[in-house]
Each structure stands twice: as structure tokens, then as C-alpha cells.
């Protein structure tokens, strides 16, 4: 939505839903593009994520490095990172080893936070 309506990238989408999109802002992980049989190729398990100073994510977690679980094979396409940042999107959580976006947030919004991982895999209703 942000890519289409704020950045004016007509047809921007995920290649999971629109393989021929002119703007693949969400795409298959680069190392998996040549794999024909996708079975067993997901990014699975817990990975560390470094949080940006002053971010909503850091305020919510209260620590600079977190670990969250993943179950996916699509990622944010880093070739769009600069244009997203120029228009107010903050990449507040990064998996440094692969330079992968884990958390993004809108800088002028009270709580627009999007995550690549599944926080529900590790959260419990009694953990506050």
C-alpha cells in the first residue's frame, strides 16, 4: 500500500501474489530464486534482530537485540530501501548477517509497525 499510494509505484506488489509485478517490493529471497522445488526452503526458526536507537520497536522491546521466529521465503526487496526511507519509512529492525529487514515503522505515525517475523510464535498473554 505504501509503495503504491505514497511512493507512486504503480503495480507494486509481492511476487508471491503478482509474479510479474513491475515493482517487486516483496520478493523471494535472492539465494532461493534458482531453486525449482521450494519444499524445505523457507527461512525457519529464530534469528537475531538489531533494533534502531529511538525506534518504536526498541521502546516496545526495551533491548537493542531481540530474537524472533520466522516461517517464510519472501523478504523486503532492499533495492527499494532508499526510496522508502526518503518518504518516511524507518527500517528499525535488521538481521545484520543477511542485511534483511525485520521491522519497519512509519516515522510520523503513533504506532505503524510492520514485522517480517511471527511475534505470536513466542509471545504469551501473561508476558507483559
From TrEMBL:
Residues in coiled coil: none
Tell me the Pfam families matching this sequence. Answer: GATase
Query: What InterPro entries has UniProt attached to this entry?
Result: Class_I_gatase-like (IPR029062), CTP_synthase (IPR004468), GATASE (IPR017926)
Keywords, ordered alphabetically: ATP-binding, Glutamine amidotransferase, Ligase, Nucleotide-binding, Pyrimidine biosynthesis
Report the residue ranges that make up the Glutamine amidotransferase domain in this protein: 31-126
One term under GO cellular component: cytosol
- Gene3D superfamilies for this protein: 3.40.50.880
Reaction(s) this enzyme catalyzes, per UniProt: UTP + L-glutamine + ATP + H2O = CTP + L-glutamate + ADP + phosphate + 2 H(+)
- MF GO annotations: ATP binding; CTP synthase activity; identical protein binding
In its UniProt record, which GO terms are filed under biological process? 'de novo' CTP biosynthetic process; pyrimidine nucleobase biosynthetic process
Q: What is its EC number?
A: 6.3.4.2
Task: State which pathway it belongs to.
Answer: Pyrimidine metabolism; CTP biosynthesis via de novo pathway; CTP from UDP: step 2/2
PANTHER family xrefs: CTP SYNTHASE (PTHR11550), CTP SYNTHASE-RELATED (PTHR11550:SF0)
Entry's family note: Belongs to the CTP synthase family.
- This chain belongs to which protein, by name? CTP synthase (glutamine hydrolyzing)
Amino acid at each position: 500500500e505504501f509503495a503504491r499510494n505514497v511512493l507512486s509505484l504503480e503495480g507494486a506488489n509481492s511476487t508471491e501474489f503478482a509474479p510479474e509485478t513491475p515493482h517487486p517490493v516483496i520478493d523471494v529471497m535472492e539465494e532461493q530464486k534458482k531453486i525449482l522445488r521450494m519444499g524445505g526452503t523457507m527461512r525457519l526458526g529464530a534469528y537475531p534482530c538489531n533494533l534502531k536507537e529511538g525506534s518504536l520497536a526498541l521502546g516496545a522491546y526495551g533491548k537493542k537485540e531481540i530474537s524472533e521466529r520466522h516461517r517464510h521465503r519472501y523478504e523486503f526487496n532492499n533495492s527499494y530501501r532508499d526510496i522508502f526511507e526518503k518518504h518516511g519509512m524507518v527500517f528499525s529492525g535488521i538481521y545484520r548477517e543477511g542485511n534483511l529487514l525485520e521491522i519497519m515503522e512509519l516515522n510520523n505515525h503513533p504506532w505503524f509497525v510492520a514485522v517480517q517475523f511471527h511475534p505470536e510464535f513466542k509471545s504469551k498473554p501473561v508476558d507483559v
